[in-house]
Amino acid sequence: MAVFMLLFLLLVSAVSGDEDAFIGVNIGTDISDMPSPTEVVALLKAQSIRYVRLYDADRAMLLALANTGIHVTVSVPNDQLLGIGQSNATAANWVARNIVSHVPATNITAIAVGSEVLNALPNAGPILVSALKFIHSALVASNLDSQIKVSTPHSSSIILDSFPPSQAFFNRSWDPVMVPLLKFLQSTGSYLMLNVYPYYDYIQSNGKIPLDYALFRPLPPNKEAVDANTLLHYTNVFDAVVDAAYFAMSYLNFTNIPIVVTESGWPSKGDSSEPDAIVDNANTYNSNLIKHVLNKTGTPKHPRIAVSTYIYELYNEDLRTGPDSEKNWGLFDANGIPVYTMHLTDAGTVFANDTTNQTFCVAKRGADPKMLQAALDWACGPGKVDCSPLLQGHPCYEPDNVVSHSTYAFNAYYQQMSKSPGTCDFKGVASITTTDPSHGSCRFPGSFGKNGTLFNGTSLAPSLNDTNSGCPPQYHGRSGSFTTSVIIFALLLGAVFL
Question: Which residues belong to the signal peptide in this entry (predicted)?
Answer without folding.
Answer: 1-17
